[in-house]
Amino acid sequence: MAKLQAGYLFPEIARRRAAHMLKYPDANVIRLGIGDTTEPIPEFITSAMAKRAHELSTLEGYSGYGAEQGEKQLRAKIASTYYGGLGIEENDIFVSDGAKCDISRLQLLFGSNVTMAVQDPSYPAYVDSSVIMGQTGQFQTDVEKYGNIEYMRCTPENGFFPDLSKVSRTDVIFFCSPNNPTGSAATREQLTRLVQFAKKNGSIIVYDSAYGMYMTDDNPRSIFEIPGAKEVALETSSFSKYAGFTGVRLGWTVIPKELLFSDGFPVAKDFSRIVCTAFNGASNIAQAGGLACLTPEGLKAMREVVGFYQENTQIIVDTFKSLGFNVYGGTNAPYVWVHFPGQSSWDVFSEILEKTHIVTTPGSGFGPGGEGFIRVSAFGHRDDVLEAAKRFKQLYK
Amino acid sequence: MAKLQAGYLFPEIARRRAAHMLKYPDANVIRLGIGDTTEPIPEFITSAMAKRAHELSTLEGYSGYGAEQGEKQLRAKIASTYYGGLGIEENDIFVSDGAKCDISRLQLLFGSNVTMAVQDPSYPAYVDSSVIMGQTGQFQTDVEKYGNIEYMRCTPENGFFPDLSKVSRTDVIFFCSPNNPTGSAATREQLTRLVQFAKKNGSIIVYDSAYGMYMTDDNPRSIFEIPGAKEVALETSSFSKYAGFTGVRLGWTVIPKELLFSDGFPVAKDFSRIVCTAFNGASNIAQAGGLACLTPEGLKAMREVVGFYQENTQIIVDTFKSLGFNVYGGTNAPYVWVHFPGQSSWDVFSEILEKTHIVTTPGSGFGPGGEGFIRVSAFGHRDDVLEAAKRFKQLYK
């Protein structure tokens, strides 16, 4: 624990925002920092949750402990909806209370004696959970990295896909695509190379596809679209950014039966043991919501939610492009990655907050490779996003 | 992982039940095994959850990520309801998706280099999570114990309270009262000794009070009723057995600001970092249910739920007593601990299942000290409990 640097990124940003609001109590602060959904959940979905809640007061509708792995019907529906034709089955799906929580349970599965690689920059929960598990060495302030972690640098120069010829072998590779924070998505060809790399090295890929539905290009939405991936990868995902479930809490992890440890033992079997010991299943009410999400009507509603945030993304991209910035991401993810070459991310973050009352996220919070960037999230009300665009234009005109 | 013995106890029982039902497809199987609530949740509480679900479809009522530590109002309400006058405050409360999940997050906090003690017998998640974290040695089949764990034997002879003079010092002491599985509750005097023991040894007590509302005697419902406990103990609890929330998922952990690691660092600060990294808060809908539970009307409804199961408990206690068994527990907990001296718990479990179609829990599943006992859970519909009583009377007449 003592190795951890400062606070987890997002609570740290929340603290700074709170301090700012104390300093400027009348300011209209706009939050494009934490990727927190802002739009109401479609009624079709909340009605299903309300119905399940009411049913819990009836003898027939009451349910107590469910399977730790999730309700059978929901597992089957996730498999057929998101992995149709890919050979992923109901039993490969583990329903959870969210991808972040599952990442931590996966770390528990891997234990403290593994080595891991992450994209640099990447979602901080991978590294932080690794530090907490004791997998890493000390934080090295000169390079802003933890010892024993392989940082796979992702920059505009390499198209945000790491040069695998320079990546050392590790036991586990965390890989997020569409990526948080850069908003970039790996192509079929790139992911094929990643799968081959993992196969050659006997590594397990933890593929985070929480933004898959934001993909507009023809890139894979799941790692399992890549031949051979089932033998080297598991995948984690979530309803958070599709249905506005950040507060409801529902996600899933796919562990194909083909994925084995080096001794031949199925990874899914051990993970099942982990969830039985360290978890008690997602809320039955949230699971009812998940089932509603995966009906034709729910899927349509989710696509509308995603579409709304995609429009926001475009507004932000256009704004920064019009101001002459180099802008990345945005096409396949609700995140816009703006370059401020030579500047400190936290300085840029602070200047934007101070002068425009807009909360963004400093790129360096995602790893040393994020230095000089800020991430602008597209999760916000339309009026706020338009107002933010106006303020950015005033600041950088 | 490889050290773990067989399956986690309760999924193992579920498997055996399923096999039994396959063998006797027409049998009316009664489940008094897993302590899973069966009675509908009072409408007052589910209505509050349904209302919150509907509100998530409105601009004003929508909420995304909440504080990982739980909603302010719920934290305050838990503090004032269950810890009124004990000096526990809102910030000491961490709302969670259940006690089992929190136990695992606590293990993550403690890390792999700690020693721990458990009551023997005790709820298996303590030991299993410890094994997964790598805190223990190998399982020693001769004594049915893991190396590096201090098993504090609790038997009828010592009133189910360990002889602390024979207990070695450990970093962490898991202690559950009212106890699962023995149903016994520690007295004020016993807990005072436990607190003094922990203070002397510089140990942290993880006190599990998930059955506190089942207490009928004048024993403490919280460890914080014991003077000095705030410097040596944290406490975990849950709405599961009070409101039938086993499927809804809502619990909490109390970490007093007075509880410090040996270097003076507040335990709560590190746990806050753990929940921020490994958790994303309990479902907002479940939290709305928790708030409803803690209104006067909700408290009354919970007391009725608890009262119903207490009546079940009495039926089970009376049944086994009338059959001449030595019966423990039941007064302060929804579990009845029945002695079958000289017999194997799993044999008794199997005989009962085979001959009466009743699922119980073999005592040895809770540790070697549980050998020769079975746990009968009082969670069941009244008709089922009465029918079970009849079958037990036929079997053992």
From TrEMBL, chains A, B:
GO terms for biological process: systemic acquired resistance, salicylic acid mediated signaling pathway. InterPro entries: Aminotransferase_I/II_large, DapL/ALD1, PyrdxlP-dep_Trfase, PyrdxlP-dep_Trfase_major, PyrdxlP-dep_Trfase_small. Gene3D superfamilies: Aspartate Aminotransferase, domain 1, Type I PLP-dependent aspartate aminotransferase-like (Major domain). Keywords: Aminotransferase, Pyridoxal phosphate, Transferase. Residues 28-391 form the Aminotransferase class I/classII large domain. Transmembrane segments: none annotated. Its cofactor is pyridoxal 5'-phosphate. It holds the Pfam family Aminotran_1_2. HAMAP family: DapL_aminotrans_1. This is Aminotransferase class I/classII large domain-containing protein.
